[in-house]
Amino acid sequence: MPKTVAIVGAGVGGLATAARLAHKGYEVTVYEKLAHSGGRNNMLEDCAFKFDMGPSFVLMPDLFEELFRYCQKDIKDYLTLLALDPGYKIFYPDGTSFTVYKDSQRTAQEMERLEKGSSEAFERLIKEISKIYTQVKPLLYHCFSPLALGNPRYWPLITRLKTFQSYWDFTKRFFKSDKLCYAFTFEAMFVGVSPFETPAFYSIITYADHVQKIYHPLGGMYQIPRAIEKLATDAGARLRYNCAINRIRKCRGTFLLSCDQGSFESDAVVVNADYAYTQTDLLGRKIPHFKYSCSVYLMYLGLKKKLTGLAHHNLFFAQDLRKNLSQIFKDKTMPEDPSFYVHVPTVTDPSLAPAGKEILYILVPVPNLDGGSGNFSLFEKRIQDIVFERINATAGVKIQDLIEVRHAFYPSDFISYYNIKHGATFGLAHTLMQSAFFRPMNYETATNGLYYVGASTQPGGGLPVVIAGSRIVADLIHNQPAEGTGNKE
Ligand SMILES: Cc1cc2nc3c(=O)[nH]c(=O)nc-3n(C[C@H](O)[C@H](O)[C@H](O)COP(=O)(O)OP(=O)(O)OC[C@H]3O[C@@H](n4cnc5c(N)ncnc54)[C@H](O)[C@@H]3O)c2cc1C
């Protein structure tokens, strides 16, 4: 059993693993390249505007609660989660909209406005997805090797989880209108893939969002890493910032981590840095040709005054969403007519901006840099014009005249800030062949004592799922090396 554990990266995955292992009595040190924790769950402050730079939706709060319970703490002492109402608003290009409320009855009325009989179809859809959710949730706490597929115990899952159906095809059977079908599959974009390409079992995100509802942490999304960092340090973990590890080696049973400040020894290592980057840059290996998620272009705007007409979360769909997604994922060209997302957290949490002012965070999905040009300046102005025109028409103002503070974040920034391969915002794509048994495992078979946690490993990306992954790694280390102790399959 290791005594000392080094964790490379203080993203939510690294912090949550540190908290669990420190709670179990291990000597844990986290090495982080940046000056603070959180990774992609980052924050930018300018003129008293507090911009959350990455995640904005809190789904599956039970997975967050589990982490605090594991460390024998109550999440309520660390984080205040508010259920949003409305959850979000969708704006279609023909001027119609669809609002998802906390109260499912009100949402049902919205559906009926768009398609008669659709609320009843939606109930049937949710019934089907809840069966998938019941099967998938326990799997989120297990690490599977591809060899486990040989175990007949798992074969029924192939049909029960609708493995060979796409998220889109699975949902389309319930609705005539593409509008509603888009509304119940766009969630695939939460993990950076197209609903036309990702398997139907990712519809558990639709379940989370409609059945479990959507939450916001009071004080902003950055309260999440802050809370988990406190959980970890309260349990005795140490964090070293501005410490970019540049090599990991194993020498006579001990791991050596080198960085500009020197080298550190440890009995075990958990890498939270991006999986593909770790293989090439930290371990000096070649990697197979993975498929990567899309990237995003982000604008963070501090506005002089409040807006009307927008909710906390807003989605603006393109005229032809199928073409939009095909340009991003297949053609790898900049979308002509982009769909985009607008986060206005000050609707719920005015403390994030000076009194009477508003935050606008605009996210536009774009191709990753795997084989792409990366010359974003050619497209930026055109994308901004389209985005502003649609927001202006909805809010009845000229956003451009209200901007007090302005920042942008480009696909290449995901590489320079967080070492994310190809600037693929959500890491490895969640395709069938990169999900579950086929996603990189949380432990190395070739190098005993080397573990992985984070979006590109099992069970997958998104804050709650990465937190579930930290449980897998902590249990592997604490129970190791016995096979079959619960989470090695
Ligand atoms: C724009 C955006 C929107 C998103 N929206 C949502 C959402 O609404 N809801 C949701 O649940 N999820 C969302 N996500 C996904 C979610 O943010 C990620 O899945 C999650 O934060 C990943 O955490 P992680 O621990 O795997 O990795 P990371 O956050 O990438 O952390 C890895 C850490 O490792 C550090 N590191 C890298 N290399 C080294 C090195 N050599 N030495 C030391 N440290 C190193 C990095 O600096 C970083 O701090 C979003 C992500 C983005 C970017």
What would you say this structure looks like, in words?
By secondary structure, the chain is of the alpha/beta class. It is built from 14 helices and 19 strands. It has helices spanning about 10-25, 60-70, 105-115, 120-140, 155-160, 165-170, 180-185, 205-210, 225-235, 275-280, 320-330, 375-395, 410-420, 465-480, and strands at about 5-10, 25-30, 45, 50, 80-85, 90, 95-100, 215, 240, 245-250, 255-260, 260-265, 270, 295-305, 315, 340-345, 360-365, 405-410, 450. A seven-stranded mixed β-sheet has the order 7-6-15-16-17-14-18. It has a five-stranded parallel β-sheet with strand order 9-2-1-13-19, covered by helices on one side. The protein is globular and about 65 Å long. Mean pLDDT is about 95; it is low at about 480-485. Flavin-adenine dinucleotide binds near residues 10, 13, 57 and 462. The site of flavin-adenine dinucleotide (FAD) has 35 residues, from helix 1 and helix 14.
Radius of gyration: 22 Å
Helix amount, in percent?
25-40%
Classified by CATH, the class of the domain at 4-72 and 219-286 and 430-479 is Alpha Beta
**Strand order within the widest beta sheet:** 7-6-15-16-17-14-18
Brief description of this entry?
This protein is of the alpha/beta class and 489 residues long.
Structural key phrases:
binds flavin-adenine dinucleotide; 19 strands; FAD/NAD(P)-binding domain; alpha/beta; 7-stranded mixed beta sheet; 19% strand
Question: How are the elements arranged and paired?
Answer:
Layout: E1 4-8, H1 12-23, E2 27-31, E3 43-46, E4 49-52, H2 61-70, E5 81-83, E6 88-91, E7 97-100, H3 104-114, H4 118-139, H5 155-160, H6 167-172, H7 178-183, H8 204-212, E8 215-217, H9 223-234, E9 238-240, E10 245-251, E11 254-259, E12 262-266, E13 268-271, H10 275-282, E14 295-303, E15 313-316, H11 321-331, E16 340-343, E17 358-366, H12 377-395, E18 403-409, H13 411-418, E19 450-452, H14 463-479
Parallel strand pairs: 1-2, 1-13, 2-9, 6-15, 13-19
Antiparallel strand pairs: 3-4, 5-8, 6-7, 10-11, 11-12, 14-17, 14-18, 15-16, 16-17
Helix pairs in contact: 1-9, 1-14, 2-14, 3-4, 4-8
Bound molecules: flavin-adenine dinucleotide.
